[in-house]
Amino acid sequence: MAITKTEAAGAQEWTARPNCSLTPTARRNLVCGILAASLLVSGGFLLAGAWLVLPFAGLELAALYIALRALDRADSSSETIRLEGDRLTVTTRFLGDARQYSFSTAWARVSLEAGDAPDPLICIRSHGRSCQVGRLMTPPQRQQFYSDLSRRLRS
Amino acid sequence: MNTATHTLDPHAGHAHHPTGVLRWLTTTNHKDIGTMYLTFSLLMFFLGGAMILAVRAELFQPGLQLMKPEFFNQLIGVHALVMIFAALMPAATGFANWMIPLMIGAPDMALPRLNNWGFWLLPPAALLLTMPFILAIFGIGDGAVATGWTLYAPLSVQGGIGVDFAIFSIHILGISSIMGSINIIATLLNMRAPGMTLMKMPLFCWGWLVTAVLLIITLPVLAGGVTMLLTDRHFGTHFFNAAGGGDPILFQHLFWFFGHPEVYILLLPVWGLMPHVLSTFTRKPIYGHTAQVYGFIAIGVLGLIVWAHHFMTAGLPVPALLYFMYSTMAISLPLAVLFFCWIATMWRGAMSFETPMLFAIGFIVLFGIAGLTGLVLADVAADAQYHHSYFVVAHFHYALFAGGIMGVMTGVYYWLPKWTGHMYSEKLGKLHFWLTVISFNFTFMPQFFLGLAGMPRRIPDYALQFTEFNAISTVGAFVLGLSQLLFAWNIWRCVKGGDKATDKVWEGSNGLEWELSSPPPYHSWDTQPVIKSTP
Amino acid sequence: MTPLNPRPLGRLFAGLSLLLAAGTALADYTWNFPTPVTPIARDTLHIHNEFMVIITVLFVVVFSIMVYSMIKHRKSTGVEPATFTGPTGAFQWFWVLVPFGILLFIDFVLMGIPAFHAVIEMEDTRTKADMVLKVTGLQWKWQYEYPDSGIKFISTMSTPREQIEGKAAKGENYLLEVDNEVVLPVGKKVRVLLTSTDVIHTWWVPQFGVKRDAIPGFLRETWVRIEEPGVYRGQCAELCGKDHGFMPVVVRAVPEAEYVAWVDKKKTEMAAAAAGSDRAWTKDELMAAGKAAYEKNCAACHQAEGQGLPPAFPALAGSKIVTGPLLSPEGKLIPDSHVDRVLNGKTGTAMQAFKATLSDADLAAIITYERNAFGNNKGDMIQPAQIKALR
After folding, report:
1. Where in chain C is the domain with CATH 2.60.40.420?
2. What is the per-residue pLDDT for A95?
3. Per-residue confidence (pLDDT) for residue B526, from 0 to 100
4. Model ipTM value
5. Domain locations in chain A?
6. Nearest CA-CA partner of C238 in C213, C219, C258, C261
7. pLDDT tens per residue across span B400-413
8. Is the pLDDT assigned to residue C22 strictly greater than 60?
9. Domains along the sequence of chain B with CATH
10. Residues of chain C with CATH 1.10.760.10
11. Which of A121, B149, C25, C130 could serve as a FRET partner for B190 with CA atoms 20 to 30 Å apart?
12. Contact check, Cβ <8 Å, B190/A49
């Protein structure tokens, strides 16, 4: 849950993304290592006549792989909020699903609204369109970001 | 371009969660789940303890006084399964849930919902394991699994419905352990705070990482083995039946390929915890952090290749006997690294002896006895005499009670103030320690001599020359069992109230988990800390 | 935070090491293996004693260092904690590596070499073997067979039920006494072959230093050369079901001449028993012999009054199988009938094929007894000669 704020001339950008200490290479090595060890073991038992070990090892490695993939998809998520001139651009990527919203700073209204998440999310609306951000921010970060953004929109 | 990282106050509470029963059923919070694991473990510890006290009462005097041999056989097997799978493993997983996110600066476990499922599989599994006892009262079946926890075929092929219940229970426990392991691996590898390299990761986390990998490699073997047992029992396969071309010894290979690493699965988290405790109460940094990491890995690897020393009397070929003897002896080397580092951590420190430190020292000494007797057990010739005897029973209780359970107690006393925000009663804690250590030795030291004198294990009645030592052991066991009530009482008091604990709790404590308040907020490390110094 | 007085700890350690030392130093065998009577047992005891001394020394040395540290490096003495975290420099590395060198030496030289020789000797069952004894484990008794002389008998625990249930005073060899002892000659290398008919058992006589599993469908072997005449007692060491604690091993070692006499006597007894299957028995004879044989072979599971221990061990009293027809009108075996069960057992249960272990006369007597006792008044009987024909 790292939120970074970038300021360039006339523009501000906030990017929230989950922190991940597992690099793709390390993950591949891990899965390959466990796969090799598991295959060695279940292959050995297969030769000894205990073939039922193999399907269980397969199931388990599949579970490990799915879990790590789930992490991977969570890792590629991000929320970017860019404020440049009179445009407010929101780009969200969740589990590979990317969306972009664009608002005029003059018309955008920001509020904290309880959605389906346990904590209120930041809702940006304008002319009947709306989007929610803050899923990748922790509650305090969200609070901070909310006050930050509303202050800037008002000024 | 300039980048600034917001550091926000992690102490701000944001506890929007359901209350009451629903909270505990649906929670994905690592602290809630950790608490549930630990509570479950404590309950099961008393259940398994009650079973074995009934056994010890029967063994107080020669003759059958309290129970029939069938029931005796059920108690010993279920005692072991409950203690290993429902008391010790959940305790370690409870520690992991509570402490790993706090130690590595993560807001929660990597896969919180999986975490919830992992826990809620445990109560049904424990129920399945013990239900045949209750069914037997109503005349259904002939009681729980009566084959000992090892479930050796063909005895288990011949057994009653208790075996089927145990097989299903083991499957569910296995799924729960796999979920826990995957989650812990994902958390440890992916959720570490920026700056915490693998080598800087706290040793407790390292112990658990090796444990989780061992579980993933070995559990399919157990699952496969018990499934083959099930098909042999009900679907006419002959995996373990010589008449059908099978081999009963194959089951022992399958069982112990899991069973031996299981010992390290139970002990590695505790070994990881010890240096933290020693460093805290010696006010001195951990000695040989890197050496201990490699020690854990070496023990994990060696643990995978020594399984057959559990059945050296089964008639293995001579080359196999020699291989398993020498590889087992080799485990003493990485284990010696750990002992060396523990003692070197104590050397020239400024020690004080609070309850966790007492338990840690008790652990080191008594676990030392387990390690040394294990070295002797590795020798095939002498093993012929020790094997299947009370010598082995004493040895593995020094490993799993003094090594496992006392290690867990060390952790509970060490972290309880952090979890509850209150100090436990130091006086009660010390009393608990001394009663435990003394009665433990009264219980199990005589069992070494019983084994040397030739008493086989798992017998409900014994020859007259074993009477005195058995009587001493039973008295010891009852004192040991009853002193654990002090432990429960002390925890209860501490949860309910007591002196406020500071954030740091101990003068010499060191690490991320001690930077949070005591108790930590419901959501902690929402904003990850950045690690600069070495741990 | 009160510092702890180190003395109780010190005393505890001293006590522990004394306890350990007691196992090694004292020649008192309550604290150690029973007196060895075979070369293997002597070897094993020697190795055990040596190892116990080694681990006691290791224990004392390692934990003396720790106890010294606990006394010297206490916070209450006002010491400043050091800050070192690992070995640095050649000198420190040297001192770190020395213990591992010592441990390597202990593991693979001091312990490893004698262990190697002991294993080789223990597993050498064939060289210069004088005779063979075949041991078969059954739930819950042992069958012994001497292939050289054709002698074959079953050995069952003879301790009365009353002693176990506390209704009578326990005898000197409580639980370690049998009806038929195995007799072996002193000074001969006996190759022991082991197998089982049902589950895994383990044949163990502590004074022989020998313990080996009896595995159904496989043959395992070990050997003994008993050096002293005497009676040696042991037990089954692998959990084998309900009466695992009640299947002792008793070996009587006698001088060669006495052994030869025993063989002759046994052969005569067996010839008499074989003759029994050819003559016609009266029902009373069968019932009397049946009661004795039932109590020895069947009562452990089906109980003395035939009430059984359901569901694992069904009742015989009023049982459909027992009260069913005896043989087909042509005198053939009816599948799943009473006779079939007793002769061939039931796979997957503790009911074993008794035709492998009991004589024709015993089988006929047991079947006749079961059909006419416990209120099963069938009134029929079966002759040993009929059993012989069914084999």
Report:
1. 131-164+174-266
2. 59
3. 65
4. 0.89
5. 2-18+79-154, 24-75
6. C213
7. 999 999 999 999 99
8. no
9. 32-514 (1.20.210.10)
10. 277-390
11. A121
12. no
Task: Give B-chain residues touching A67 at CB under 8 angstroms.
Answer: 111, 114, 182-183, 186
DSSP H/E element including C194: strand C190-196
- pLDDT of A115 above 70: no
CA gap B270, B360 in Å, rounded: 10
Please provide the average confidence, as pLDDT, over all residues in chain B: 91
Give pLDDT, residue B16: 52
Q: Check if the beta carbon of residue C191 is closer than 8 Å to that of residue C129.
A: yes
Residues of B with Cβ-Cβ distance to C23 under 8 angstroms = 448-449, 452
- Cis peptide before B275, with omega less than 30 degrees from 0? no
A9: nearest CA partner in chain B: B1
Chains C and A touch (3+ CB pairs under 8 A): no
Give dist(CA C173, CA B65) in Å, integer: 19
Q: Which structure tokens are listed for C388?
A: 């012989």
CB C298 within 8 A of CB C317: no
Q: Would the pLDDT of B370 be above 50?
A: yes
What CATH fold (topology level) applies to the domain A2-18+79-154?
PH-domain like (2.30.29)
* Per-residue confidence (pLDDT) for residue C3, from 0 to 100: 42
Cis check: omega of the bond before C204, within 30 degrees of 0: no
3-class DSSP assignment, residue C174: coil
Work out whether strand B2-5 and strand A2-8 pair parallel, antiparallel, or are unpaired. antiparallel
Residue of A42, C214, A119, C35 lying closest to B452 (CA atoms): C35
CATH architecture of the domain with range C131-164+174-266: Sandwich (2.60)
CA distance C46 to C52: 10
Q: Residue B356 in contact with residue B281, Cβ under 8 Å?
A: yes
**pLDDT (tens digit, 9 = 90+) per residue, A9-57?**
778 888 887 777 787 788 889 889 999 999 999 999 999 989 999 999 9
Q: Is the pLDDT of residue C261 over 90?
A: yes
CB contact under 8 A, C204 and B388: yes
* Whole-number Å distance between alpha carbons of B163 and C103: 43
CA distances from B351 to B181, C79, C314, C351 (A): 35, 9, 65, 64
DSSP B193: P
Select C277-390's CATH number: 1.10.760.10, 3.30.360.10, 3.10.20.600, 3.40.1260.10: 1.10.760.10
The answer to whether the beta carbons of residues B347 and C89 sit under 8 Å apart is no
pLDDT in the model for residue C125: 87
- Which residues from A are below 8 Å from B254, CB to CB? 45, 50, 53
The nearest alpha carbon in chain C to B61 belongs to C166
User: Using CA of residue B311, residue B315, residue B321, residue B325, what is the dihedral sign?
Assistant: positive
Answer yes or no: do B155 and C216 touch at CB < 8 A: no
Over residues B242-288, the pLDDT tens digits come to 888 899 999 999 999 999 999 999 999 999 999 999 999 999 999 99
Per-residue pLDDT at B141: 84
Sheet-wide strand order for C201-205: C182-185, C248-254, C230-236, C201-205, C210-214
The answer to whether residue A112 neighbours chain B at the CB level (below 8 Å) is no
**Please, which pLDDT band fits residue C93 given cuts at 50, 70 and 90?**
confident
- State chain A's maximal CA–CA distance in angstroms: 76
What residues form DSSP beta bridges with A97? A94
Read off the pLDDT band of C5 (50, 70, 90).
Answer: very low
Looking at the DSSP bridge assignments, the partners of residue C132 are C191
Residue B447: both structure tokens together: 């069992």
- Separation between Cα atoms, residue B414 and residue B102, nearest integer Å: 14
Amino acid at B296: F
The stretch B479-504 carries a mean pLDDT of 94
